[in-house]
Design a protein that fits this description.
Strand content: under 5%
Largest sheet: none
Number of helices: 2
Helix content: over 70%
Radius of gyration: 20 Å
């Protein structure tokens, strides 16, 4: 006979509270990263349509690097949070 633990209140469980905080940060980082990626694409095509100078190239590169720095950990942590939530649901916690 296996006893299942009662569902923990998310407000009183420090692990769930921390997980919710990480999820909020992941959401902000993802939105910012994808916006920077879209901005880099727009900047590239604007530079391509006009005079493609060094300043525009620098702006495109900076936007791409910033997007990559934000998106890489955000995507990994987002999957981690979803996997932890899924495991908790499967275990009935």
């Amino acid at each position: 006979m296996t006893a299942t633990a009662p569902a923990a209140d998310p407000d009183s469980d420090p692990v769930r509270r921390r997980r919710a905080q990480v999820q909020r940060l992941v959401t902000i980082a993802s939105r910012t990263g994808y916006a920077l990626l879209a901005g880099a694409v727009v900047l590239f095509f604007v530079a391509l349509a006009t005079d493609f100078n060094g300043t525009m190239a620098t702006l495109v590169i900076v936007a791409l690097v910033a997007a990559s720095i934000l998106l890489a950990p955000a995507i990994v942590l987002g999957y981690a949070v979803k996997a932890a939530d899924r495991e908790d649901r499967e275990r009935g916690v």
